[in-house]
Structure formats: C-alpha cells, structure tokens
Amino acid sequence: MAATAPAVAAPAAEPAPLAGGALALLTLGLALGTFMEVLDTSIANVAVPTISGSLGVATSQGTWVISSYSVASAIAVPLTGWLARRVGEVRLFTLSVVLFSIASALCGFAQNFESLIAFRLLQGLVSGPMVPLSQTILMRSYPPDKRGLALGLWAMTVIVAPIFGPVMGGWITDNYTWPWIFYINVPIGLFSAVCAFVLLRGRETKKTKQRIDAVGLALLVTGVSCLQMMLDLGKDRDWFNSSFIVALAIIAVISIAFMLVWETTEKEPVIDLSLFKDRNFAMGVLIISFGFMAFFGSVVIFPLWLQTVMGYTAGIAGLATAPVGLLALVLSPLIGRNMHRLNLRMVASFAFVVFAFVSFWNSTFTLDVPFSHVIGPRLVQGIGVACFFVPMTTITLSSVSDERLASASGLSNFFRTLSGAIGTAISTTYWENDTIYHHAILTESVSTYAPNTTAYSDSLTSLGFAGQGLSAQLNQIVTQQAYMMATNDFFRISCAAFIVLAGLVWMTKPRKGAGPSLGH
User: What confidence tens digit (pLDDT) does each residue in 37-94 have?
Assistant: First the structure.
C-alpha cells in the first residue's frame, strides 16, 4: 500500500469583503476617525490667541499648541507600517483612536500651558497611524471592484477637513470655550473605535515579530522633529538669521542623511525605503508632495489675503474658502467609483490644469473685487481637488503588494503632511518678503511732486485727513497695494508650478484600468 502523503495546511483565506449596513457603518466610522485627526492639524490655528490669553502666555509661545502636535504626528506617521506589522492593522487603528480620544480630553482639561503642550505631543504621537490605516483598512473591506469608491470616500475626509478646520475652530471658540475644540473629538473617536472593534473582529492582519531598529528610529525622531520645528518656527524667528533655526536645520539634515544610509542597509528597517524602487510609488509620492505643497500654500495665503488686505473677518474668510469642498465632496466618490474606466494620468493632468486656471484667475484680483467673485475660483478648484487626490493616490499605490500597503500608505501620507508644512512655510515667507519689495518700489513713486500723489492727497484732505493722519492713510494704501501685488505674484508662480506638474504626471506608468488593488 502506498504511503499516504502528509496533509499540507492551506493558507488562511482572506476575509470576505463587508457588505450592506456593516460596510456603510464601517465607512462612516473610519471616515469620522480620519476627519477628526486631519481636522486637529488646523482647528486650533484660529484659537491660538484665545488659548494664549486664557493660559497667560504670549501668542508667539501659543503657536507651540500647533507645532507640538505637528512635530509628534510627523514622527509617528512613517512608523505606521512597522507598527502595523508588529501589532496588527485593526488593533493598531483602534488603539490609536482610543488613545487619541483620551489625549483630546486631557488637552481640554489642561490647567496650564505646559500640560497642554505635553498632551498635544501625546495626541500627535498616537494620531500617526490613524489616517494611513483608515485608508488601507477601508480598501481591504470593500470588494475589489469598489475599492476605487472606497478611496474616493476616504479622500473626501482628508481633503475637506483642513479646509473646514479653521471655520469650525473659530465658531467653537467664539460661541463656546477653547477646550471644546478638543472635547468634540471624544464622542467621535469612541464611535470610530467601536465601529472598528466590532465590525473588524476576526479580520486582523498577519503580525510579525520584528526587532526594534533603534538606530533608525532615533535618527528618524531626531531628524523629522527638528525639520518640523524648523518649518513651524522659522518664519517667526526670521529663518536662518536665527541661530536656533540654523541649529535645527543642521541637525535635521545630518540625522536624515544618516537615516537614509542606515535604512538602506538595515535588514529590518523602521521605514521601508525600498518602496521607492517602484516607479509609480516614487513618482506618485513626488507629484502628490509638490502638488499638495502648492495647493496648501494657496489654502494658507488665500484667507490671509482676505483678512489682512480685504478686511474680512475670520468667519467670512472661512465662508469664502469653504466652497472648495463642495464639488470635491460630490466628485471624489464619483471618480473613485469609475476609476477602472478612467485614464488616471489624464484625470490627474486635468486636475493640475484646473489648479493652474484657478491660480491664474486669482492672480487677476484687485482690491475692489466683490465677495461673489472671490468664491468663484474656490468653487471651481473643488473639481481639481477631486481629480487630483484620488487618481494620484491610486497611481501611487497601484504597484504596491498587499503586505506592504500599510508601509506605503504611511510613507506617502508622511510626505503629504510634510509637504503641507513646507508649502505653508515657503508661501507665507515669500508673500511677506514680496510685499516688502513691492512696498519699497511703490514708496519711491509716492512724492509730493508726483501728480498722482498730489491729486490723491487733495482727495484725502477734502475728507478731513491732514498731517500725520494723511501720511498714515497714504502708507496704508501703499501697503494694501503691495500685499495685493504680492498675492498676484504668488498665484502666478503657483500657476506655473501646476502646469509643470500636469506634464510630470505622464512619467508614471499605471496599468490600463488600474485601480487601488490589493494582493498582487
């Protein structure tokens, strides 16, 4: 009798996708968790003066409420893949959301500035895995033919949250007290955590016991924290005229350079840099980073211009900015649902063309532009937002295997977040320096012998201005014009940058009909 061959254990089957009410509830839970985390990157911005006054510190110190969170989050995001392999994606996401909710409550309870900064650091550290893991978990939970829709729904929250953050932060601060910008996270976070825990039970990803890459981790923490602090504090400290900023820059460059060398030779790196060997991932991250940098720069400069130059209140400026989210909310899931039918490079290029058109439109504004004209470009920009983020994310992850998806998502989200900080630093610094330049040029034209100056001075004199009051009014007008010219210059440069990115998209090579697939 022939010997019986030993039975071979079949590999564990991938859990079937969710459906119906369970899938809808999970989507809502993950979306709210993502929205909450992204919202906290911007919701505290408008509340800094109120928080500073309440806790008895200067407004310049109060900016650490923002910086402490962004630094801690920037460190944690690229660690997502490594942590997920050790803990499991579902467990890590649920734990992150619960800890984020607790840290949010502690921020609200803070009785002094030092404790608030400590709790914001904790909040940022535990928030890192939330956004990338919500993306990968959502895609795993949808059927393969609907993963584009899942990505579109996920993208809506990432896109819209930074836009509505300042609006919500201002409204809460004006109508309640500043701790409520943190308290609102608690019920949202608990709902998101319960949804993940209940609906994803038994769907945990494979865990591996990896040793801790202590050297890589130390270099990452040092380099990224110094880089983020440099970006956050550089403008207030006059950039490289400050020895503190110079020191941060040197430490960041040295640490990141050593980390790149170390991680490429480490067998179990804390960050999987080999992902950049994939052309679509490398080019996708590059394009998303520069695209988000230019986009986020306009998100920052636009409301600053409205409040500084046009005299809008924070609330009205928020309303003028908000329309960008309207068409993005409608179009993102629509594009995601039809991802396999679309030429992704064509859609992404179209997005950058829309951004370029909107930037050029903004560059034609003058000081007498009405509110109805201000919101027009923001509404159109929503088309570009929907056509940019979903297709480019799909291209970026299209060649990444299932087991490396969390690492890829964490790394791409890290560069997206970092590029937003870089875009903010570059745009605000350029805007103010260009304003100083234009102010100097315009001042040269203001002379008692110039016919235009004389005529305008006579008009102001007839309105009751004289002496120092007349000089102050003339200087205010020159300053407004200088800011307006700097704003126009900024948007012209943004227009050129978007045109370059529209061409750069064609250096990627996604498969025909590619979507955000898994397991290849």
Answer: 777 766 766 666 677 777 877 665 666 777 678 777 777 777 777 788 788 888 888 9
Residues 178 and 33: their CA atoms lie apart, in Å, by 21
Residues 15 and 12: their CA atoms lie apart, in Å, by 9
Q: What is the pTM of this model?
A: 0.75
Q: Which two tokens stand for residue 253?
A: 């460059």
Sign for the CA dihedral angle at 352, 419, 131, 80 comes to: positive
Residues 495, 310, 323: CA angle, nearest 5 degrees = 60
Q: Which two tokens stand for residue 170?
A: 């201002």
CA distance 476 to 470: 10
Question: Token pair of 209, please?
Answer: 């016991």
Give CA angle at 97 (142, 20), nearest 5°: 25
Q: At what angle do helices 405-445 and 279-308 cross, to 10 degrees?
A: 40
Q: Say how many Å lie between the first and final Cα of the chain, rounded.
A: 42
Angle between helices 130-141 and 89-109 (to 10 degrees): 140
Q: Give the CA diameter of the chain.
A: 118
Q: Distance between CA 111 and CA 108 in Å, rounded?
A: 9
Long-range pairs for 451-459: beta carbons < 8 A, 24 or more residues apart:
none
Q: Cα(194)–Cα(204) distance, rounded to whole angstroms?
A: 15
Closest by CA to 400, choosing from 287, 285, 289, is 285
Count other Cβ atoms within 10 Å, centred on residue 444: 8
Number of Cβ atoms within 10 Å of the Cβ of 100? 29
Tokens found for residue 395: 């291209």
- Judging by beta carbons within 10 Å of its beta carbon (0-12, 13-18, 19+), is residue 73 exposed, middle or buried? buried
pLDDT at 5 over 50: no
The 10s digit of each residue's pLDDT in 235-248 is 778 788 888 889 99
Distance CA 317, CA 315 (A): 5
Give ∠ CA 298-232-186 in degrees, rounded to 5. Answer: 85
* Secondary structure (DSSP) of 475-514: HHHHHHHHHHHHHHHHHHHHHHHHHHHHHHGGG--PPTT-
